[in-house]
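Example (one chain per record):
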Amino acid sequence: MSDPVRFENDDGIVTLTINRPETRNPISDPDMIEALLEALDRIDSDVSVRVAILTGVGTSFSSGGNLKTMGEHGGINDYLPAQTRRNYKFGIQRLPLAFEALEVPVIAAVNGPAIGAGCDLACMCDLRIAAQSAIFAESFVKAGIVPGDGGAWLLPRVVGFSKACEMSLTGDPITAAEALACGLVSQVVPDEELLGHARKLAQRIAANPPHAVRMTKRLLREGRNASLNALLEMSAAMQALAHATGDHKEAVSALLGKRRPTFTGR
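Predicted structure:
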């Protein structure tokens, strides 16, 4: 069987491709979870990686849970409810924690339907762009379950409470155009141009000093929950680190000299 996640590093821009097109790229199976976690750890530990793109093989971004393993007992669901809780805790719930801890920015290039946990997976990323054919659905209620992967925390922070309620309580899908209107994605592009646009966005991020990018992402993530006082304290500490980098000096020199900077990550 092929690898659950394809990993490609092209000059500091990593593309992760979910590779289960025959089942529409579900992410709830143990091998997929482990593959994604391994890929995120590999990205985070490699200081040469500037930004990552996450997409899916085929016509789907991700179907979320694997319907074939759902039912009375199967997959995450166990005969013993206490074990089901542990299956979530030590299974799919590790993904939002890993994305939250990741310092490298991740762009979701949503190439098709992002359903249930697939929609939440897109929300775990920092930026989202969509192909015109993409649809999004927070559809857990349609299967008689709740967002067990953290969707009730993720989605409101992306689209706001009211829209998150509408999506979660109806379970109805929205189009790429509707996703753009509510802020779920920042761009909608022709299907065949999706990865090209994602890479251009990645290059715009990768052009900046890597330590400043990673610390800026950390501040943005922490700012969603921290008090202003706490975030200001963290900002001051990270700013002290940024001021001490050679890339900061190079950036200032390039701005004053009206030239293109060369950043080294030092």
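Caption: The radius of gyration is 19 Å.
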